[in-house]
Design a protein that fits this description.
single chain, alpha+beta, two-stranded antiparallel ribbon, 3 helices, 4 strands
Length: about 80
Amino acid sequence: MNAPLKVTKIGNSAGVILPKEVLAHLGIKVGEELTLVLKPGGIELVSGEPDFEEQMAVARKVMAERKRALRELAK
């Protein structure tokens, strides 16, 4: 889908209105958050944090390796 979006003044900021097709494609509803990722030559809008799963995988690995220490700290 290629559709021109008009930049609108919103208070001291600026914004664009996303068509309902874009919201449906992203799987989000009004009031939910998007993450804006700066890319060379443009931007990317994603629902959720783009590297959340990668961060969680690292956290799970550390928690598994340091299980005893974490158990002691939790006391």
